[in-house]
Amino acid sequence: MQKVVFKTSQGDIEAEFLENETAKKIIERLPIESKVKTWGDEIYFDTGITAPSKGGTLDVNIGDISYWPEGKCLCIFFGPTAASSGDKPVPASEVVVVGKTSAKPELLRKVKSGTKITVTMD
User: Fold this and answer.
1) Into which CATH architecture does domain 2-121 fall?
2) Domain boundaries, the chain
3) What is this structure's pTM?
4) Three-class SS of residue 119?
5) What Rg do the C-alpha atoms of the chain give, in angstroms?
6) What is the pLDDT of residues 49-90, one digit of tens each?
7) Strand locations in the chain, DSSP E?
8) Which residues form the Cyclophilin TM1367-like domain (predicted)?
9) How far is CA 77 from CA 28, 52, 88, 89, 103, in A?
């Protein structure tokens, strides 16, 4: 697993990326700098990266970091999204899980749309 950090003015979000093809493609392109958007308890942002989407799923969990091929975005799920009917996050369409964070939802909720985010290797 590769350690990465999502840096924001609200604090650093530490994560570990998996060893799958999609995660490796994203790691190759670090650092990434973007502006955050939110969708319920999900942070997402454009990466400008076209990465493999093999293994796409709608089944994600709190703490999952996923690549959303449709938007070329990274997503951090930390609670229910606009598509959820319960407490579990549901993506807008299929995503590829590329990592995991144990960051507290309280920290992630402080990161608002328009916030600058930088992703680097730890």
Assistant:
1) Beta Barrel (2.40)
2) 2-121
3) 0.96
4) strand
5) 13
6) 999 899 999 999 999 999 999 999 999 999 999 999 999 999
7) 2-8, 11-17, 32-35, 37-38, 42-46, 64-68, 73-77, 96-101, 116-121
8) 4-119
9) 23, 20, 9, 6, 10
